[in-house]
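User: C-alpha cells in, sequence out, please.
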C-alpha cells in the first residue's frame, strides 16, 4: 500500500510533553464498530466485560541514550537491540565519524568498541570491562525519550518514573510500552472487581519500532526485529479465557505484535521465545487479538498502519480527526484509545 495513505496533519501543541496525573485520568477514545465515544481511562472497567483479558508487556526501559566521544568527534548512540551479554546494536548520530574498530568513550569508566556495521548503518557496540552493562548504563546513559519530546525539553529525573509502567520488571526495552503507562493499582483493583483478567508477556521494545517509514510503499519497508517471550502457562491461560468467551485485549501495540507472532492459524496462542519482525498493515487477518488499548500514533508510522489494519483505515482516520478536533493529547505521554473491531 502507498505510505502516504497513512499521513495526517497534527498540530504540534497536541504532542504531550508530560503524562496526565494521576495516570488513569488521561482521556480515552473508544472506537467500537466504527462508533466513537469519549471517556477517561479510569472508565475502563465499565467498557470491558467480565472474562475479558488485558494483556500487558512487562518489559523495563533501560537508560539506552548515550553521548560520547571518539577522539575529538562527538558520537551519540541509542541502543536498540541486545546481541549478547556485552553487545548492543545501536543507532549512531554522527556515524560518518565512526568506523568499525573505533572506541567510543561515554564516560570516564564506560567505553565501547564499534565491532560491526549493518546494511542499515547501525553499529554493533561491544562494551568493555567485566561489570554488567546494565550498571554501566545507569551511570552513563539516560532515559531514551522519543525525539518528539526530547527535541522540546531535556530528560529529567521525573522521566525515570514517568517513562516506566507499573508492570516493568524485565530489563531490555529502549522505549516504553506506553499504553500501560495509564494504569494504577486503583484501576487494576477496579478491573479485578469487574471480573476482567490480566496477563503479562515480555517484548523488549526497540527504537526501530518508532522509526518513520521512508519507503513510498509498505512492501518496501523492513521492520527491525525485537525479542519477546510468552511462557507456556500464560499461553494456556489466554487460550482458556478465549475458549470461554473472553476477549484478548492487548494493552499496547507491543503486546499485540507478540500475541499475533505467537498465534497459530487457528488463533491458539503458542509459547514463544525469540525475535519477531511482524509488520501488520491493512489486509492482515488477526488471529489472537480481539481488541487493543493504545495511544495515538505518528503519521506514516508502522503503528498507525497497525491500528488501521485492526479497525479499518477510514474508521481510524475518522477517530483521529475527532481526537484532533477534541484536543486529545498525542504520542507516548498522551491520551489513549480503546479499539474494538
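Assistant: Sequence out:
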Amino acid at each position: 500500500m502507498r505510505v502516504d495513505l497513512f499521513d495526517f496533519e497534527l498540530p504540534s501543541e497536541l504532542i504531550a510533553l508530560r503524562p496526565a496525573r494521576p495516570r488513569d485520568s488521561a482521556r480515552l477514545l473508544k472506537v467500537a464498530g466504527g462508533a466513537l465515544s469519549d471517556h477517561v481511562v479510569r472508565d475502563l472497567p465499565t467498557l470491558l466485560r467480565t472474562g475479558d483479558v488485558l494483556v500487558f508487556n512487562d518489559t523495563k526501559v533501560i537508560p539506552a541514550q548515550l553521548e560520547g566521544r571518539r577522539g575529538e568527534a562527538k558520537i551519540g548512540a541509542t541502543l536498540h537491540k541486545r546481541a549478547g551479554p556485552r553487545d548492543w546494536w545501536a543507532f549512531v548520530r554522527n556515524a560518518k565519524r565512526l568506523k568499525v574498530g573505533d572506541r567510543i568513550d561515554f564516560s570516564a569508566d564506560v567505553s565501547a568498541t564499534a565491532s560491526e556495521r549493518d546494511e542499515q548503518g547501525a553499529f554493533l557496540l561491544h562494551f568493555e570491562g567485566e561489570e554488567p552493562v546494565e550498571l554501566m548504563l545507569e551511570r552513563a546513559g539516560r532515559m531514551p525519550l522519543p525525539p518528539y519530546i526530547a527535541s522540546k525539553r531535556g530528560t529529567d529525573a521525573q522521566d525515570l518514573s514517568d517513562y516506566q509502567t507499573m508492570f516493568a520488571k524485565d530489563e531490555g526495552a529502549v522505549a516504553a510500552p506506553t499504553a500501560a503507562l495509564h494504569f494504577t493499582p486503583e484501576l487494576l483493583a477496579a478491573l479485578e472487581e469487574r471480573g476482567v483478567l490480566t496477563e503479562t508477556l515480555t517484548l523488549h521494545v526497540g527504537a526501530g519500532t518508532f522509526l518513520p517509514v521512508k519507503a513510498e510503499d509498505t512492501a518496501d519497508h523492513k521492520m527491525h526485529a525485537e525479542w519477546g517471550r510468552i511462557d507456556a502457562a500464560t499461553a494456556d491461560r489466554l487460550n482458556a479465557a478465549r475458549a470461554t468467551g473472553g476477549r484478548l485485549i492487548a494493552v499496547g501495540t507491543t503486546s499485540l505484535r507478540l500475541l499475533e507472532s505467537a498465534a497459530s492459524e487457528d488463533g491458539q496462542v503458542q509459547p514463544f521465545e525469540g525475535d519477531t519482525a511482524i509488520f501488520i498493515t491493512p489486509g492482515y487477518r488477526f488471529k489472537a487479538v480481539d481488541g487493543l488499548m493504545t495511544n495515538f500514533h505518528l503519521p506514516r508510522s508502522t503503528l498507525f498502519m497497525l491500528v488501521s489494519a485492526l479497525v479499518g483505515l477510514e474508521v481510524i482516520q475518522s477517530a483521529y480527526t475527532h481526537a484532533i478536533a477534541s484536543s486529545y493529547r498525542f504520542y507516548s505521554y498522551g491520551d489513549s484509545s480503546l479499539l474494538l473491531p
